[in-house]
C-alpha cells in the first residue's frame, strides 16, 4: 500500500513557504524601481501599512518639504488607500489626505486630495491645506502605494498622521472604511526633524477619534494638487525584482509540492 505519511520536516517547509513573502515584508526590505531612497521608514502599527519619508528644510518660510511613500493593501481590488496629515489633532476629521485608487475604465491608478472636514466627509471636498508639487501611485495586484511631496510650513517639524484603507470607490468617491479596531486606531505622530514615529490614544482605544494635543505649526496656503491625478508609479513603485521574486517563489513552491507528492505515494 502506498505510504500516506508526509515527513514532518517537509510539511513544515511547505507550510512556511506557502506564507506569502509580501505579508512579512517590512519597510526596510521594500525597494523602488528607480532606486529612490528615503531617510526614514516605519512599519505602521495597523493595517499592515508602511511609510517611508524624507524631510528637507530650507531657510524660507514655506520651503520645507516632506517626500513620502505610503504602502497598504486596499480592502478589495476595487478599493482605496489614503494617508494624510492632521495639523490640529490626532484624528480623522481635519486630516488633509491623499487617496489612491484604480479607475473603473482602464484600471490605471489615480490620486485625489481629500480635505476630511466632517464625519462622514463631504464630497467634493474643499482644497487641502498643503501644496503638493509631486504625486503618483501604483498597484501591484496586492499592495497600493502613494508617492508624493508635500510643501510644509517651516515650523511644522512634528505632525499627526492618519492612514486608512477602504473597499470601494464610486465615481471617484470613496465608500466609508470599516469600523474595526485597526481602522479606528490608524493614527500616529511623526517627528520629521528627528526621523521618529510614535503612537497616540485617547484612552478609549480609538486613536483616530481622539482629542489629544496636536502637532506644532499651522497648515500652509490653501492650495490643492490637480484632482484625479493619473499615476503609474512614476518609476517609484515596488521593484520589478520584487515581482519577479514573487513569481519565482510560486514556481519554487510548485516544485516542492510536486516533490512532496512523490514522497507521499512512493
UniProtKB/TrEMBL annotation:
<feature type="domain" description="DOMON">
    <location>
        <begin position="47"/>
        <end position="166"/>
    </location>
</feature>
<keyword id="KW-0813">Transport</keyword>
<keyword id="KW-0249">Electron transport</keyword>
<dbReference type="InterPro" id="IPR045265">
    <property type="entry name" value="AIR12_DOMON"/>
</dbReference>
<dbReference type="Pfam" id="PF04526">
    <property type="entry name" value="DUF568"/>
</dbReference>
<feature type="region of interest" description="Disordered">
    <location>
        <begin position="189"/>
        <end position="242"/>
    </location>
</feature>
<keyword id="KW-0732">Signal</keyword>
<feature type="compositionally biased region" description="Low complexity">
    <location>
        <begin position="218"/>
        <end position="231"/>
    </location>
</feature>
<dbReference type="InterPro" id="IPR005018">
    <property type="entry name" value="DOMON_domain"/>
</dbReference>
<protein>
    <recommendedName>
        <fullName>DOMON domain-containing protein</fullName>
    </recommendedName>
</protein>
<dbReference type="GO" id="GO:0016020">
    <property type="term" value="C:membrane"/>
</dbReference>
<feature type="signal peptide">
    <location>
        <begin position="1"/>
        <end position="24"/>
    </location>
</feature>
<keyword id="KW-0472">Membrane</keyword>
Amino acid at each position: 500500500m502506498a505510504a500516506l505519511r508526509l515527513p514532518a520536516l517537509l510539511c513544515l517547509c511547505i507550510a512556511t513557504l506557502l506564507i506569502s513573502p509580501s505579508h512579512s515584508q517590512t519597510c526596510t526590505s521594500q525597494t523602488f524601481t528607480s532606486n529612490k531612497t528615503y531617510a526614514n521608514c516605519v512599519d505602521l502599527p495597523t493595517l499592515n501599512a508602511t511609510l517611508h519619508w524624507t524631510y528637507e528644510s530650507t531657510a524660507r518660510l514655506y520651503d520645507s518639504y516632506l517626500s513620502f511613500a505610503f504602502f497598504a493593501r486596499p480592502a478589495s481590488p476595487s478599493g482605496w488607500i489614503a494617508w494624510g496629515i492632521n495639523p490640529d489633532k490626532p484624528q480623522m476629521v481635519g486630516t488633509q489626505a491623499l487617496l489612491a485608487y484604480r479607475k473603473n475604465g482602464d484600471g490605471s491608478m489615480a490620486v485625489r486630495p481629500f480635505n476630511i472636514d466632517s464625519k462622514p466627509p463631504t464630497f467634493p471636498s474643499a482644497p487641502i491645506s498643503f501644496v503638493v508639487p509631486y504625486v503618483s501611485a501604483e498597484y501591484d495586484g496586492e499592495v497600493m502605494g502613494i508617492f508624493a511631496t508635500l510643501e510644509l510650513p517651516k515650523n511644522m517639524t512634528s505632525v499627526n498622521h492618519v492612514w486608512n484603507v477602504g473597499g470601494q470607490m464610486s465615481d471617484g468617491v470613496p465608500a466609508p472604511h470599516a469600523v474595526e479596531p485597526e481602522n479606528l486606531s490608524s493614527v500616529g505622530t511623526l517627528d520629521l526633524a528627528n526621523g521618529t514615529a510614535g503612537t497616540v490614544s485617547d484612552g478609549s482605544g480609538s486613536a483616530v477619534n481622539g482629542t489629544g494635543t496636536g502637532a506644532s505649526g499651522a497648515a500652509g496656503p490653501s492650495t490643492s494638487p490637480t484632482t484625479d491625478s493619473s499615476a503609474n508609479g512614476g518609476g517609484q513603485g515596488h521593484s520589478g525584482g520584487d515581482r519577479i521574486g514573487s513569481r519565482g517563489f510560486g514556481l519554487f513552491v510548485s516544485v516542492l509540492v510536486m516533490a512532496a507528492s512523490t514522497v507521499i505515494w512512493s
